[in-house]
Amino acid sequence: AFLTPRGGEPMAPNNPKRHPGRGGAGLKEGVLVGEVAINEYAAFLLDRSVTSVLRAGVQPTALVRIENSVFHDTSEDRNAMFRSIKDKTGSFQLFAQHDCTAEDMGPSLFPVDQVHRIAVLDIRLCNTDRHVGNILLRKSGSDLSLIPIDHGYALPGEVGEAMFDWLSWPAAKKPFSDEMRREILAVDPDRVERLLTARIPLRTECLTTLRICTVLLQTGAEAGLTAFDIGMLMTREDLIDGQSTSVLEDLVAEAKLKAAESGLPWMWILRTLIHAKCHSLAGSTLKPRTEPRTPETSLPNSPLSCSLVSCDQVSDRSLLDSPLFSVQGLTRMCILQNENLCFAYLDDTAPLTPVLPRLEAAASEAERALKDGSFDFIEDGLGGTYFLKNSRCARVAVFKPRATDFAGEALTPCLNEVAAFLLDKTSGKSLSAGVSPAVLVRASGFSADHRRLHFEAEDVCFSLVEQNEPPGASEDRIGSFQLLAPSDCTAEDISPDRFPVDQVHRIAALDIRLCNANRHMGSVLVRTSGGVTLLPVDHGDSLGALAEFTLDWLSWPAAMEPFSEAMRREILAIDPERSELLLRKTLPLSSKSLATLRLGTALLQRGVEAGLSPFDIGSLMVRPDPTTRSSLEVWSDGDVAWADVDQSIRVRCLEVARGHLKGSGAFIALMPRAPSAPDDDEPPELSLPCLADEAQLVVDSCDLLAARNPGLSLSRLSA
After folding, report:
1. How do the residues of the chain divide into helix, strand and coil, expressed in percent and rounded to 5?
2. Residue 297 has what pLDDT?
3. Which residues does residue 136 pair with via DSSP β-bridges, in sequence order?
4. Which ranges constitute the DSSP H helices of 371-412?
5. According to the model, what pLDDT value does residue 437 have?
6. How far apart are the C-alpha atoms of 651 and 217, rounded to whole Å?
7. Alpha helices, H only, 479-590
8. Dihedral sign, Cα of residue 244, residue 246, residue 249, residue 250
9. At 381, is the pLDDT very low, low, confident or very high (cuts 50, 70, 90)?
10. How far apart are CA 145 and CA 118, in angstroms?
11. Per-residue pLDDT averaged across 450-464, rounded?
């Protein structure tokens, strides 16, 4: 073992290596004299507070008090025959057996996962002194282990110059594994702060640095950045080039300046700036493709007008197969016209399929049949639903006009139907539930006797009928026009044991994203030819109030099964901002509807990150009893910042996962949980996995030293 006493480091008054000082600032910016020993212990606690996936292997450390005459004191002659006993406090750490250091071996041999663990630890600690000499290497046959040591110059009082020698290692440029990303995103900064402050006297400024760097790590990992990308944001470039601060330092300064001008909390502003920077970097690191990607089907032979929609950096993970050569924006297909018809259609990511001609043909058939009054009308609420037929009296499409309630407020089932199609259409192949094509149309000449329906040109940004317009002033009706999915029966006519797991999961994922409040058995059509195929219909009650949910698939056996790896990747690849842009540019949805979409998407992604099944996630949406609000309702409170809502969802999903894994040995004690106000009379809960065993090693080592050296006095130092 080795001891790092407080007051003996460089610039301290009693430094034994003839580098005395008066205290205050240490060798590294932001680290004060006397904090080196504390930081060694903090690094051990921080490393031990995570699972084995993230644990870098910091040696067991404790704070101890030791008395001996050999300790140096500037007021005493070193060569004196008799020296007084000095009392020292410092960090006591087990010595790591090793064969060499990282500078004695080529970095291409270093295991990727171990390099990532050390990088994650250094980023969180804002380590200002990670050179190759303080990473030890131990060989065991063909296995190579990296052991990080010397964390005294970490957790500076302000974000400053970080030093990461691993930035030049090939492994640092490899992406984090999915498992490591999940564990990074599961770190709870509040809980970690409570853990540290209950044991060691860290300055508030040091805790702020820890929080900032944790936010940067989590945001970068969520955006798909590598350890190299994140580390480069924390290091300063060569001063010869004129850059005296790192990107992270600039972001902190900008956040504080904006906070002074706006009065908002600077930490909240910093989160926004870090999020924008990481996602911008994720987009800018994309390489142009050598050849354009080809769609699965050719474009329909119709006149198309294409325009570029302004969009910030688009990440590659949200761009699926499409004929785009680059990702500088979204391709917007708009206005496919014929004599009587104009459909507004937007498809920016999914493979292009000829749905527009199908809609065109269905509308033409319906127009001809409507002249003879061939349609079915179902009184559905105030708006009504019209099943349009062809000349052979077969249903070909569904028309849902925009409706208003008795107070004159607009109802949006027609908008939600189109939104469901667009979101499903732009999902990956493993995630698309198969929602029938739907567009918004204006039906002119919509008379009271429902005898005549005519479609005419209608742009995406249409103008709705004014609320105060006199009745009968216009017979035009705006609504959703959707192809009717051919089916043999509904889900209530067949046993759910026969439903394919992947199809149930796709419908469940769509309902969770849309916060669909009315997924009953009758809104899932079944086609039995060539195997069972499930077809979701009727999404008018989506993106609305988060009170009562009907999710009949919660009782289906397939909903209890975990998501497949392919579907998990597709879900985690969803870009909420891109989805919002897609709907905002296409439909006049309210900000409340878009906020509901973001909430549902966050719940789906956080649940998948935690390994939950569709049943687990859906259970968080329904009320346990009629008088108790669901978790989703609680999260929808408008007074809470989105970052806090997202973190609460993540914590709750991990709690559900912990309930499944409890007692299996696969889940550690220290996992994020919903923060609660601690009782002033009780210390915060501290739960460190395996810490008791490691601490006992330190105690045993102290006892052994004391037994072999009768003049040595060792005692454990409490928090």
Report:
1. 40, 15, 45
2. 26
3. 101, 147
4. none
5. 84
6. 17
7. 501-514, 565-572, 576-586
8. positive
9. very low
10. 11
11. 33
Instruction: Please say whether the beta carbons of 380 and 411 come within 8 A.
Output: no
Q: What is the DSSP annotation of 255-279?
A: HHHHHHHH-S-HHHHHHHHHHHHHH
Q: Which of 366, 398, 367, 368 is nearest to 384 (CA)?
A: 398
For residues 211-235, average pLDDT? 94
Confidence of residue 530 (pLDDT cuts 50, 70, 90): confident
End-to-end CA distance of the chain: 21
What pLDDT, in 10s, does the model give residues 138-174? 998 889 999 999 998 999 999 988 999 999 999 999 9
Structural contact between residues 15 and 89, judged by C-beta atoms closer than 8 angstroms: no
DSSP label of 237:
P
- Set out the domains of the chain in order of their start, with CATH numbers: 2-285+689-716 (no CATH), 489-688 (1.10.1070)
Q: Which of 394, 581, 611, 575 is nearest to 483 (CA)?
A: 394
Distance CA 303, CA 6 (A): 77
Residue 572 and residue 609 in contact, taking contact as beta carbons nearer than 8 Å? yes
CA atoms of 213 and 559, how far apart (whole Å): 38
More confident residue, 228 or 19: 228
Strands 550-551 vs 518-519: parallel, antiparallel or unpaired: parallel
For residue 384, name the pLDDT band (cuts at 50, 70, 90): low
Instruction: Give CA–CA dist 264/13, Å, rounded.
Output: 42
* Distance, C-alpha 56 to centroid of its chain: 23
Question: What is the rounded distance in angstroms from the CA atom of residue 612 to the CA atom of residue 593?
Answer: 25
Q: Is the pLDDT of residue 621 over 80?
A: yes
DSSP 8-state code for residue 43: H
- CA pair distance 491, 533, nearest whole angstrom: 10
CB 333 within 8 A of CB 306: yes
Largest CA distance in the chain: 119
Taking the CA atoms of 322, 324, 330 and 335 in sequence, report the sign of the dihedral they define.
Answer: negative
Nearest alpha carbon to residue 117 among 61, 45, 184, 170 = 184
pLDDT, tens digit, 9 for 90 and up, residues 324-336? 222 222 222 222 2
Return phi, psi of residue 245, to 5°.
-135, 155
Give the integer Cα–Cα distance in Å for 428 and 358: 22
Residue 536 makes CB contacts below 8 A (sequence gap 6+) with: 433, 434, 435, 507, 510, 511, 519, 523, 524, 525
Alpha helix segments (H runs only) across 426-468: none
> CA–CA separation, 518 vs 546, rounded Å?
11
Q: Which residues contact residue 326 at a Cβ distance below 8 angstroms, ignoring those fewer than 6 apart? A: 288, 289
The single residue listed with the structure tokens 């090693």 is 697
